[in-house]
Amino acid sequence: MTKRIPYFLLVLFLFALARMAPAAEPEPMLLTASAQGRNMEQAVAALGQAIVAHNYTFVRQQAIDSRLVPYAREVRSVRLVYFCNFAKMDRVLRLDPRATQLMPCRVTLVETPSGVDLIAVNPAWVSQNVPALHGECQELKNDYLAILEEASL
Amino acid sequence: MTRFDINRLIVWLALLLSLSARAEPLTVNKEVDMRQALDDIALAAANHELVMVKMQPIDTALAKRGFENPHIRILFIGSESAVRWAEVVEPRLLNLLPLRLTLIQREGRMTVMSDDFEPWLREFPADPAHRMIEAWQAELKAMLDDFVRQ
């Protein structure tokens, strides 16, 4: 029995090392695309179409300072668009309740002199600390990339 | 391998495991139902000059569509000063705003959990962004402590 202890400890040691090992390919924090030559209204409309085309449901859009200032003072150049896919939401919540950090899906639209930038927090970056969600978050990242690409065409 | 070696190995393992432990979101618990929790959070937020921006009832949204009710809701809270600061100093931090709280109801207990700030702190190691994230985290912690005391 005592002879087995070092082997058990060795396995634990390797497990600890594996947990400390950094991911092979670090994920970027943000996923971005640029809708050149569009105004905010056009960019929001194109994003809405891309969301639906990828089997997601539009939830709402709001200013970045919505409810924090009177409506007339809201910033017009930064808007948040929220959307979700209920089946995916159900699936990730069963894996880990910290999946709410990804909910609802969101794209931030920022008006620039040449168009509108579309920015999303990379779900695979968020899930770095939640290994149970990493597979789902890789898929979600791909969905985001497809939506951003389509919305910026 | 002697007993001394094994003891030393155990100490090293404990150290390694503690180093590999990940930061967790801010979390508090309280024995209240969802309605009372929302009222108490609104009060605590107001005490800390934070505003409830939006409540996302994902429990009813999922149940209405035939999925299992997860008994989870999401709250977005914020402050104008945080938005203005991020706009001027580090616009990438706008992606963290408004701040999110998750309410999880399990057997009469309500768990309220923030997002995990650790990846954000790691991504922004230098001031003033790092200090600002820490300030938001501290503000949220004070608010959650207040919520527990309500």
Distance between the termini of chain B: 56 Å
Q: In angstroms, what is the radius of gyration of chain B?
A: 19 Å
Strand order within the widest beta sheet of chain A:
1-5-4-3-2
Strand sequence of the main sheet of chain B, in spatial order?
1-5-4-3-2
What string gives the helices and strands of chain A in order?
HEHEEHEEHH
The averaged pLDDT of chain A comes out at: 89
How would the global form of chain A be characterised? elongated
Largest sheet of chain B: 5 strands, antiparallel
**Percent range for β-strand residues of chain A:** 15-25%
For the termini of chain A, the CA-CA separation is: 66 Å
- Name the structural class of chain B: alpha+beta
In CATH, the topology of chain B is named TATA-Binding Protein
How many helical elements of chain B? 6
Mean pLDDT of chain B: 87
The CATH homologous superfamily of chain B is named TT1751-like domain
Task: Determine Rg of chain A (CA atoms, Å).
Answer: 20 Å
Summarize the biggest pleated sheet of chain A.
5 strands, antiparallel
Helix content of chain B: 40-55%
Which parts of chain B are unreliable, with pLDDT below 50 for 5 consecutive residues or more? 11-22
Please state the oligomeric state of the protein chains shown. Answer: heterodimer
Shape of chain B: globular
